[in-house]
Amino acid sequence: MSGEEEWVNEKGSWVQKGKGGIGAEGRRIKGEGLEGVEVAARVAVQEAAKVEKLQAQVRAQGEYKEVEGGVRGVAGVQEKLWEGCGISQPVGLAVREDGMGMGDIFVACWKDRFVVQKELGWGDELGKFGEGSGLRPYHVVIREDGEAIAVTYMCDHVVAVWEIVSGVKIGYTGQNGQPGREEGRYSYPHGVTGLRSGGFAVTDRYNKRVVALDGNGRWQRVIANTFEDYVYGIIEVAEKEGTVAAVAVGVANGTVEIVGEMDGRLLRRVGPLHLRPESMAVDVAGRLIAGGGVVRLNGEWIYDRYAIVVVESDGREVVTAAARVNTWVSIAPLTDGGIVTSVTALNDVFVV
What we know:
Blueprint: E1 8-10, E2 13-16, E3 39-48, E4 51-60, E5 71-72, E6 79-80, E7 90-97, E8 103-109, E9 114-119, E10 125-129, E11 139-142, E12 148-153, E13 158-163, E14 169-174, E15 189-194, E16 200-204, E17 209-213, E18 219-224, E19 231-239, E20 244-251, E21 256-260, E22 266-270, E23 279-282, E24 288-292, E25 295-297, E26 300-302, E27 306-311, E28 317-323, E29 329-333, E30 339-343, E31 348-351
Parallel strand pairs: 5-28
Antiparallel strand pairs: 1-2, 2-3, 3-4, 6-31, 7-8, 8-9, 9-10, 11-12, 12-13, 13-14, 15-16, 16-17, 17-18, 19-20, 20-21, 21-22, 23-24, 24-27, 25-26, 27-28, 29-30, 30-31
């Protein structure tokens, strides 16, 4: 193969050694900052409704490796959280665990147009939110007290808060189908995070700002509007040894900007990462996790990949999972160190 290394087929698994990311059907994909990574991906093509969907299961070979560009090796095995989960186009995820191996998960189902609550272990359905509203949920988060969820409806330009026990909508901001910039309006509200104050923070994507809502979803104020590019994922973090409440905001250029909750002042910047941070979380070790369906390879943004990275305290990335599939991706960490991720194009939820 002229100018390219050849993939080796070992019992149905494409194995690539040396540089690069993940490819399919024997194609080599050179990856920026992924030198020395050894990747194996088993790829199958699945036909559903006459649409080909690429399904990949990714496994690391060997241990993490220190590599140029600050990225460590690829790791993780993707397994389905449940067999036959019965949902269509899952996007946002929110998980709560009780410390005894039990819990529940909230999944924003784009095509079904509702958020479903399921038992974490067996997948039994516990409730639905927004069914019949016609709104398409995107991201979801559980309120600090555990009694309500906030949901962004990105393409509908609204945010709603639902009480978990009753399923009743208790808050709503935005105007359905009408983007806007004035107070109480959004232009594609993307990510949402709960705040320790009991309220929420939302990334207003095309308005390039972060806004604060109270615990019932009422508009409070703009936290920050100094971002140079569109804003995506968001998670509350603690800065300056836990003394300053802040939000980490994923920006379209691949950086994560951490700004103070009270004054919106930029405290520090992480990246750029090797993906667009569309969904973010903090794991049990206090590390930032980012997931995205757009990956940066050779300095260019590629739209038929997805990846999940863990950002170490020194800013380096550990690529935890990656695959060649055109999809949205959301993440939610587990207390055992695993990560739950939605793969929209496959209509399924996985554990990495």
